[in-house]
Design goal:
single chain; alpha+beta; 5-stranded antiparallel β-sheet; 6 helices
Length: about 240
Amino acid sequence: MPDHRPPPTALLLPMILAIPDLLSPNTLAAARAKLEAASWVDGKASAGHQGARVKHNEQLPAEHPVALEIGNILLQAMSQNPLFMSAALPLHILPPMFNRYAGGQTFGTHVDGAIRTIPGSGHRIRTDLSCTFFFAEPEDYDGGELIIEDTYGSKSVKLPAGQLILYPSTSLHQVTPVTRGTRLCSFFWLQSMIRSDQQRSTLFDLDIAIQRFGKEMAAHPSVVQLTGIYHNLLRQWAEM
């Protein structure tokens, strides 16, 4: 009997979406071991004026070999993940960075800068979406929740290792103090082909519906019609 319940959607705006199982368990474990053995520096180095006042964590330098290696692994995994690609519709992705929190470290309420420069290129991107990828399991540390504020209130995020949270860069957010263990994550930003959160969410909902409809009734002519509507909206709204 087909399941006719609607799939989870992003109708509540702005969209906050978890991407599960981005890395395999073996790849995740190897990456975490390399990160834990790396040399870290004060995280204030990459913060803006406002963020530096409330940022208390450690970071890998952007040019660190481990950061470059694992960042490339994450970029490749995202490019092959249908859910991520459908939700983000990325045009440019800033190379992933890495941070860790321990011993009460925290990052107070802040908003991400609107423009970031890709290291070594001089190319600037608009930050439409922010991403946090979790390397440590929730039970490995106390605190460290990512609190995202949006139109509908505050959402607390603390995902299992291997998962990524995707949310609008316009959101005020913070990381609560880590009082036990170590919170180990990657964070980065992307510029979407679709600037508008609302238009991007509409396309995501439509794409998910098309995929579900296509699985249940692949030969139905409406599948082609809806796919055409999706691509016509994408053609109308996309910035390249």
